[in-house]
Specification:
Length: 339
């Protein structure tokens, strides 16, 4: 929007406004970049001849965690045990059936909003309330799933090409707090068998969704297996590390895949990213400490340009390369404050 020739602002859940914008601008490509979209409109306009990236079906299925999880399970992909609840009573019953602790999150949200862990029956009401607060859209529904005692989590950036085979970036390790990504690094080292299993599952699910573009496919990795977690049909927040760790960032790769341009090779060096968080509510923020952070070799900072702040909102990211990239990226991020 900051560099576009034209722009307009409206709720993507407003069906009429979305239809009017598509009719007015007659886009060559419709590239959804958030989950909270009236995806039924995308299904309709795709039938009319508009191209949705990667496909209207992918946008529709992945807007809601229940639908994409059902697709993965239907394809025989290993997932955590899960169920759905539309009331706190439902949630209690399913949590007891799966067994505590359980992870609870809205079927539609973004960046981990509304996600919590219920360790016992006494946590269920608070988890339900928190999930409802973090929901996007108009579906009051949560997913409750088995708590996986994983060794680490990865995002496997998976690129479906128009004129070539599906390819993968090196796995990205990441850490979440409050259900939200805080820092990531690439590559995450893992044994070849686990990596192959993740690639096969990612290829299977993205092939079912179809289209061209980049997908952020998340997995839990345990000592014994790789377990599908979630999928986004767009560049992934943990993948911002690729702004410094790869010759082609996830955004470059998404653009090339969308436009049918070749991707001869993806080269990766050790890199890391760490988020810069806001501490309070505010408008038109300023950033202190950026100059200090950039004083270290191999550090870059990207400010997102968000006009408002709130506690824990991600406002920027610090990037680092080198063998100690993760520690340096986190140190750089800590030097920056949002006011």
């Amino acid at each position: 929007m900051q560099v576009a020739d034209e722009s307009c602002v409206f709720s993507m859940l407003d069906e009429q406004a979305l239809r009017v914008a598509i009719s007015r601008y007659q886009p060559d490509l419709i590239v959804p970049e958030i989950e909270a979209i009236r995806t039924e409109v995308l299904l309709d306009v795709e039938e009319q001849g508009f191209e949705v990236i990667p496909s209207a079906r992918a946008a529709n299925l992945t807007m809601n965690r229940d639908r994409i999880r059902d697709v993965a399970a239907g394809l025989g992909v290993r997932t955590a045990k899960f169920s759905y609840a539309e009331s706190v009573e439902d949630l209690m019953a399913h949590a007891k059936s799966i067994g505590f602790p359980v992870v609870i999150k809205p079927v539609m949200s973004s960046s981990g909003k509304g996600q919590s862990v219920a360790k016992s029956e006494s946590d269920i009401q608070a988890s339900w309330d928190y999930a409802c607060q973090g929901m996007r859209g108009d579906r009051k529904k949560v997913i409750v799933e088995e708590f996986i005692n994983f060794e680490f989590e990865i995002t496997l950036l998976t690129i479906r090409q128009r004129n070539g085979k599906t390819i993968f970036c090196e796995p990205i390790g990441h850490v979440q707090e409050r259900g939200d990504y805080q820092y990531s690094w690439q590559p995450q080292h893992m044994n070849p068998e686990s990596l192959k299993a993740a690639q096969e599952m990612a290829a299977k699910v993205t092939a079912d969704l179809g289209g061209a573009g980049i997908f952020g496919v998340e997995f839990f990795v345990t000592k014994d297996e790789v377990i599908f977690s979630e999928l986004s049909p767009r560049p992934h927040d943990t993948g911002m590390v690729t702004l410094i760790s790869q010759n082609l960032s996830e955004f470059d790769l998404h653009a090339r895949a969308i436009l049918g341009l070749p991707i001869p090779s993806i080269e990766c060096i050790e890199g890391a990213s760490a988020v810069v968080l806001a501490a309070k509510e505010g408008h038109n923020p300023t950033y202190l400490g950026v100059e200090d952070a950039l004083g270290d070799k191999g550090i870059d900072v990207r400010i997102f340009g968000k006009p408002t702040t709130r506690p824990y909102r991600r406002m920027a990211v610090a990037l680092a390369i080198g063998p100690d990239a993760l520690a340096r990226a986190r140190a750089a991020a800590a030097k920056i404050s949002v006011h």
